[in-house]
Amino acid sequence: MESIASLSQALRTLFFEDATRLAKEQKVIKRQRCFSATNLLLVLVLGWFQHPLAGPSQLARFAHTAGVSVSKQAIVGRLSFQTASWLRSVLEQAVSTLILVAPLTQGLLARFPAVILEDASSVQLPDALAFLWKGCGGSGSASSVKLGVRWDLRSGQLRGPLLQDGKSHETHNPVHALALPVGGVWVADAAYYSLRYLRQLAQRGIFFVIRPRGDLAVSTPDGKRLPLARYLSQQTGKVIDLSVRLGSIPALWLPARLVALPVAPEVAEQRRAHLVEKAKNQGHTPSAEALALAPWNLLVTTIPATVLQAQEVLLLYRARWQVELLFKLWKSHGQVDQWSSANPQQILCEFYAKLLAMLVQHWVLMESCWDDPHRSWMLSADLLRDQVSLFLQGLRGRLPLEYVLQLIHEALAASASIPARTTCPSTSHQLLDGEYWGLT
Predict the structure, then answer these.
(1) 3-state secondary structure (DSSP) of residue 264
(2) How many other CB atoms are found less than 10 A from the CB of residue 342?
(3) Is the pLDDT of residue 414 over 80?
(4) Alpha-carbon distance 288 to 285, whole Å?
(5) In this protein, which residues make up the domain named Transposase IS4-like (predicted)?
(6) Distances (CA, A) of 331 to 124, 303, 313, 335, 351
(7) In sequence order, what DSSP letters do the residues of 352-404 get, joined into one string?
(8) Which residues make Cβ contacts (< 8 Å) with residue 334, sequence separation at least 6?
(9) What is the per-residue pLDDT across 189-200, written as a single tens digit (0 to 9) for each?
């Protein structure tokens, strides 16, 4: 398969060429006695991939399967700030590598060249690492990192994780400045809502679907300010679909659609309580408009109604949850936010190596099962972990790497699909059918 050949080349480049070049530049391997740069990367990345909470002793045992006879002390000696800096450089190099597979050709997603989900997730680090990664401080951690990603739900292509200080806003992450394809859809939550940025997307021919913030200002197409909460309270339809202009300055109005869906009364009450509590912590009271809009799920989009109906807009935004599941996979399965040591140097090495493992995992899963729109990302990751020893032998050259990747492809493709349900279908089945079950 062409995709297997492409993935094989990307893995060889990362583990053999990039790792060696960067280790030489940073003088990580001064004298090659126990470890070469490639072997060290294999042991740390695949060792923590297979055993996420492995300590030096377990890594030393794993090293033997990689053809390296080392002691626990030798592993400890390698877990330094210098090694961490090298691992971070290898991660940055890996992030710039794009693995291409055939995009999905059916269903709602196929109407666009790309459907890009953007989000970020925070990982707290020991306070001793605040000199490298600054956290929010105060009641929060003195050191933390935000992982920013963009994930194309149609092709599976992942941009990121790109790292930033935990104290910085998500829109300051380098991934936010990456180009988006013309005609594609950018999907994000309210933290990314910025009229200036949304205007830029519209000017470049890029659609968006996003939750607005509570201070949303909208006008009717003829320029009259719309009291949104009062207007919605008078509507009786299940889904409201309005043509509006976003913003309060006429010269900067942005034509868009506003899609509104009512929520259950208990959900509305929970939202009001959250707004009151959040405002209290910040020393003010929530606005009457924000409280009045609590009973509604609101989305704004520039996708024409002739391309997506209102319920399809809701379904497309519901698919944003997939990026949350991606972060959940990295944390619960890859345990990128948990450590086997209290040593800051080892923790930093472990953090970067695990992120590399999750990126390599994503590449392999893309090639192995992306053509199945109903694959379970979590189940696929579980199955892949069982194949780490085989994967290692392919990277070592003990077996042909392309043959190993083909075996992994067959194992995952046969077992990772989500069966269809007659009630409340999975997101993948709803995207394929274009029917949003949230209206039932």
Answers:
(1) coil
(2) 9
(3) no
(4) 9
(5) 113-358
(6) 12, 34, 29, 4, 11
(7) HHHHHHHHHHHHHHHHHHTT-TTB-HHHHHHHHHTTHHHHHHHHHTSS-HHHH
(8) 49, 52, 354, 357, 358, 361, 381
(9) 999 999 999 999
Contacts from 136-145 at CB under 8 Å and sequence distance 24+?
Answer: 136/166, 136/167, 137/167, 140/166, 141/166, 145/351
pLDDT the model gives residue 440: 44
- Residue 399 CB burial class (10 angstroms; 0-12, 13-18, ≥19): middle
Give the pLDDT of residue 48. 96
Q: Which residues contact 132 (CB under 8 A, 6 or more apart)?
A: 143, 348
**What 3-state class would DSSP assign to 244?**
strand
Tell me the average pLDDT across 130-145.
Answer: 87
pTM above 0.90, yes or no: yes
Cβ–Cβ < 8 Å for 147, 160: yes
Find, among 103, 110, 118, 109, the residue nearest to 156 by Cα.
103
Q: What is the residue whose two structure tokens read 């109604």?
A: 305
> Count of CB atoms within 10 A of residue 43's CB?
26
Phi, psi dihedral angles at 61 (to 5 degrees): -65, -40
Query: Which of the residue ranges 83-87, 144-148, 278-282, 387-391 would you say has the lowest mean pLDDT?
Result: 278-282
List of residues 6+ apart from 391 with CB closer than 8 A: 46, 364, 384, 404, 408
335's CB contacts (< 8 A; 6+ apart) are 52, 53, 354
Q: What is the mean pLDDT of residues 356-381?
A: 89
Q: What is the mean pLDDT of residues 357-379?
A: 89
Long-range contacts formed by 274-278: CB under 8 A, 24+ apart: 275/214
pLDDT score at 62: 93
* Confidence category of residue 50, pLDDT binned at 50, 70, 90: very high
Q: Minimum mean pLDDT among 45-49, 62-66, 113-117, 304-308: which range? A: 62-66
What is the Cα–Cα distance from 18 to 21, expressed in whole angstroms?
5
Q: Are 364 and 386 in contact (CB under 8 A)?
A: no
**219/210 Cα distance (integer angstroms):** 18
Q: How far is CA 438 from CA 144, 221, 284, 316, 317, in A?
A: 36, 29, 34, 12, 12
